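Technical annex, item 7. During the second reporting period the consortium partners agreed on a shared format for inverse folding records so that results from different sites could be compared directly. Each record opens with the tokenized structure and is followed by the designed sequence. A conforming record, contributed by the partner at site C, is shown below for reference.
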């Protein structure tokens, strides 16, 4: 028998040849078996990386080529590079974002993170049968692993899935540390499989967005490596702001109820009836010095389009700032009319305003899909003429004659032509809005009423509207939703179901002189974005992938710094709550966060409590349930009890007629 000593006889110290390595390993293996000791891989020296292959080949190993060693090195380098992405703020494989979110939720939220990590983790034998869904035990190993997912990726996604399970246990009122059942029931297995399916969908939404389409959705206070289109708020650029060729061509007052007409046509009734002090409304902030030249250019463009006029003094006003539109290539100039709005009477609530909750009323019959046509009004507020009595209350930062001449290229005669009746040309002039300005509290109500009047004239009665304040339409052959300047038509009657109605709307827009943004038209499609919600293949509603990525990055930034102002946190909370309207029961996870954001104008940064971070994280983690299936069936019955454990025991049940 070959001995270990004979393998090294007459050999110089150094690297062994492959035949010598095999002979040495054979000697060690034979010696171990002869002594009846259990063979262990630890007997082999760490310098023998070919041991695994040696065992598979029955003790003999072929010579490994240089190309094979190079390929093995490349695979290991690729694996190490992939694992290193877990520490990146924006990894290439965005499955690591879900891992970071799960880790941050477990580690940065104190006892709440401990609850998520421990509840349902252990499984006890001998438990009686569990009829309820909760507590739900967490996953371990390759349990419930999807076949299409690699084992390494599953180990990462499983951590996120377990956090979702823990969040559901918390919502169900399970006590901390409660063990889960040893064996899940069929109902529990169904719940777990649905959670995994939703988690995979959220992962796919994170993987989809390309650079340039999501950066503008991330708040400016969240640092990014680059923002291709600049900050979201500020840096006014006059050429990026959409201005109509001719503004104020539509008169919406005639569409308003008579009692509302009397208010908006009289500043005495709109403002003087208010209890606020009106003396200081004409004193407001100026534009930033860096934006001064661009502001003057914008004023000149808006004067020439008859969107603005000029007065010597204004009765009220506010500054102007730029807000980037989705995509980041265009800007919206917003008039800061908070103080003027507060001094005016409270406006009526806009009727039938579309929201995610309203879209959730959509139903898709079996073997059918919902199609959508969409119309968008171009610069809608700028098309709506403002009553003359209100124009002097909508002032903007003043400009000088020299600025209008030197920066805007306007001569004295042109400037004089934009003065309101009875005004004289001074060195300092105040631009005032001649149209309903974005930023005034009444503008949204007026714009919604005018859009609804267009719908009524297009044979879209209110019995077909999707809104939270009206009954759900009896059929979905043709329904619509209206949101200030967006009109959305839906139909499950097959191809062309919304085309005829969209044509009538186009004709009514033309008849009234209203301008549409034809570039945003959607014509009888299965995929569309409506009030920030994405219609997918005519069967589902979900959150657009760029928005999901922006929300996850915002939450991770809050976990890293754990410092934010109430205004900043209010911004992040508002975005999540908008999509929570797809699944309204999710709103129940928020409690302490409302105390932190009680004053949304507070800009002083402070430490964010662990429970506030926990509620925001749970709200985002449970975002896997934001995807809504329009094909879902209704329960066959509705039951209710008096919920008393002491007396009564009443129970009612209503079965759906067949």
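Designed sequence (site C submission):
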């Amino acid at each position: 028998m070959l001995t270990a000593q004979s393998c090294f006889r007459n050999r110089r110290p150094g690297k062994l040849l492959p035949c010598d390595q095999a002979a040495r390993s054979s000697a060690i293996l034979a010696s171990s078996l002869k002594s009846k000791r259990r063979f262990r891989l630890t007997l082999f020296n760490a310098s023998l990386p070919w041991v695994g292959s040696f065992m598979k080949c029955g003790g003999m190993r072929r010579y490994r080529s240089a190309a094979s060693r190079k390929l093995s090195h490349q695979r290991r380098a690729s694996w190490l590079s992939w694992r290193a992405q877990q520490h990146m703020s924006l990894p290439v494989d965005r499955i690591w974002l879900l891992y970071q979110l799960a880790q941050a939720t477990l580690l940065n939220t104190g006892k709440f993170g401990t609850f998520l990590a421990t509840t349902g983790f252990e499984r006890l034998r001998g438990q009686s049968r569990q009829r309820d869904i909760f507590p739900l035990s967490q996953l371990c190993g390759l349990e419930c692993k999807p076949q299409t997912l690699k084992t390494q990726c599953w180990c990462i996604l499983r951590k996120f899935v377990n956090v979702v399970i823990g969040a559901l246990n918390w919502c169900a009122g399970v006590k901390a540390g409660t063990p889960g059942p040893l064996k899940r029931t069929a109902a529990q297995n169904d719940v777990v499989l649905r959670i995994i399916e939703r988690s995979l969908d959220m992962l796919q939404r994170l993987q989809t967005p390309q650079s340039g389409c999501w950066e503008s959705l991330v708040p400016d206070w969240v640092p990014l490596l680059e923002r291709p289109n600049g900050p979201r708020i500020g840096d006014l650029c006059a050429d990026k702001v959409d201005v109509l060729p001719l503004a104020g061509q539509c008169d919406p007052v005639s569409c308003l109820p008579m009692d509302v007409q009397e208010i908006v046509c009289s500043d005495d009734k709109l403002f003087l009836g208010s209890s606020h002090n009106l003396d200081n409304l004409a004193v407001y902030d100026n534009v930033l010095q860096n934006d001064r030249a661009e502001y003057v250019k914008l004023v000149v463009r808006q004067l020439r389009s008859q969107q603005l006029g000029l007065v010597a003094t204004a009765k009220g006003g506010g500054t102007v700032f730029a807000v980037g539109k989705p995509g980041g290539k265009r800007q919206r100039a917003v008039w800061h009319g908070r103080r003027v709005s507060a001094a005016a009477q409270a406006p009526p609530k806009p009727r039938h305003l579309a929201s995610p909750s309203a879209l959730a009323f959509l139903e898709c019959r079996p073997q059918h899909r919902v199609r959508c046509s969409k119309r968008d009004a171009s610069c809608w507020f700028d098309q709506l003429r403002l009553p003359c009595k209100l124009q002097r209350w909508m002032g903007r930062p003043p400009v000088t004659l020299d600025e209008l001449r030197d920066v805007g290229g306007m001569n004295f005669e042109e400037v004089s032509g934009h003065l309101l009746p009875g005004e004289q040309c001074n060195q300092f002039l105040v631009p005032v809005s001649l149209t309903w300005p974005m930023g005034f509290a009444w503008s949204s109500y007026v714009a919604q009423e005018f859009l609804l009047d267009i719908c009524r004239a297009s044979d879209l009665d209110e019995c077909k509207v999707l809104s939270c304040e009206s009954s759900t339409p009896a059929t979905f052959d043709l329904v619509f939703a209206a949101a200030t300047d967006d009109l959305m038509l839906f139909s499950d009657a097959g191809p062309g179901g919304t085309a005829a109605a969209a044509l009538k709307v186009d004709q009514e827009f033309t008849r009234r002189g209203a301008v549409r943004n034809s570039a945003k038209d959607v014509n009888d499609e299965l995929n569309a974005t409506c009030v920030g919600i994405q219609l997918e293949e005519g069967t589902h509603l979900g959150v657009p992938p760029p928005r999901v990525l922006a929300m996850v990055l915002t939450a991770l930034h809050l976990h890293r710094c754990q410092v934010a102002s109430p205004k900043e946190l209010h911004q992040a909370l508002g975005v999540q709550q908008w999509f929570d309207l797809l699944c309204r029961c999710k709103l129940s996870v928020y409690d302490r966060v409302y105390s932190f954001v009680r004053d949304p104008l507070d800009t002083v940064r402070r430490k964010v409590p662990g429970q506030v971070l926990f509620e925001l994280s749970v709200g985002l983690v449970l975002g896997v349930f934001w995807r809504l299936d329009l094909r879902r069936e209704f329960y066959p019955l509705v039951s209710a009890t008096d919920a008393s454990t002491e007396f009564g025991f009443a129970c009612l049940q209503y079965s759906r007629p067949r």
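The radius of gyration is 33 Å. Residues 1-23, 25-30, 32-60 have pLDDT under 50 and may be disordered. All partners now use this format for quarterly exchanges.
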